[in-house]
Amino acid sequence: MSRNDPRLAGLEVYRVGGAVRDARLGWPVYDNDWVVVGATPDNMRERGFKPVGRDFPVFLHPETHEEYALARTERKQGHGYTGFQVYASPDVTLEDDLARRDLTINAMAEDRSGCLIDPYGGARDLEGRVLRHVSPAFAEDPLRVLRTARFLARYHGLGFAIAEETRALMCQLVESGEMAHLVAERVWNETEKALGEPNPEAYFRALSDCGALAALMPELARDSGTLEAALARLHRLPEEDGQWLRWRWARLCEHLSDDERCLLSERLRLPRAYRELAHQAALTRRLWLNAPVPPDGARVMAWLDGIDAWRRAERVAPQVALVSLENPGLATDLALAWRLAAQILPQALLDQGFKGKAVGEELRRRRREAIDDALDASHL
């Protein structure tokens, strides 16, 4: 915000939320959010600001495109994170606006000169590495359970922990049944963001501790030992593949049965790319887990069929890289078997006079033969 911006002249404007928090932690700030106190929607439109959304009085600066929201309060009217009535008026103070936020570290503001306004102790909790709710109204919004867990995943490496009284409110929200009113898209949105944080395992542990994981993703919550083993895999990803968010989800779910994984995917309405990679990782897990020595050619052939390798050859290398994390010897065998089998192409059989169904049958026979020969040769 430029102090000389004529569009802001005469307005009481404050930088709020994440930008204030991260700047004080020494983290990079990519986006600024602003709160305007004492103004009306007409005031903002007259200055050229463009209204966005229908639920909240938020405006975009016509040049910087940063968000400027009128100070507002919220009152619980129904279930879930959407069950709130918003009140925006020139008489809403900055402190009123900050009071509706989830955590104290997100309820700080700075004026135009950079002076901190911190009515709820956010700076103290930053220093103490504590995630603490601003007010008892925290327990009115089930989405805050996920957000708090996600912030823990982001700042866990700095030593942050959830305050006991905040954890108690998270448990209260779960016990009230409010989690059932969260729509799948919001649950997945927070979960996907958490997968991108430095310590995503902290997100799932926090949800498990308060019961939210059992409510939202019961397939992952059925056994604490199995969950911990899955969380340990979140940092063991194939180095060759850049889709690390998808890989983290795939590694988290690879131990689930096909039915469990399907139920979880449907409940969260996962994007297709996440579903497919999780399915491939599950097939690969079954291959490397307790694999015989030498490997069995039929199992390798079935695995290649399962990941659709013959049509989607780009899938093989990342899956072999995954095997290398768990069973390096098997990964070497698979790489050789695939290299030889992939060289056998339908066109060569057509050139030799094979036709119709015979092409497919001979193709499978020769590929299987190449796989068997490669596996036998590597164990002579």
TrEMBL record:
Pfam families according to UniProt: PolyA_pol, PolyA_pol_RNAbd
Tagged with keyword GTP-binding: no
GO MF annotations, alphabetized: ATP binding; CCA tRNA nucleotidyltransferase activity; metal ion binding; RNA binding
Q: Which UniProt keywords apply?
A: ATP-binding, Magnesium, Metal-binding, Nucleotide-binding, Nucleotidyltransferase, RNA repair, RNA-binding, Transferase, tRNA processing
Database matches in InterPro entries: CCA_bact (IPR012006), NT_sf (IPR043519), PolA_pol_head_dom (IPR002646), PolyA_RNA-bd (IPR032828), tRNA_CCA-adding_enzyme (IPR050124)
Question: One GO biological process from the UniProt record?
Answer: RNA repair
Ranges of residues in domain Poly A polymerase head = 14-132
Recorded protein name is Uncharacterized protein
Q: Which cofactors must be present for this protein to function?
A: Mg(2+)
Q: Where is the tRNA nucleotidyltransferase/poly(A) polymerase RNA and SrmB- binding domain?
A: 159-221
Family membership, please give it.
Belongs to the tRNA nucleotidyltransferase/poly(A) polymerase family.
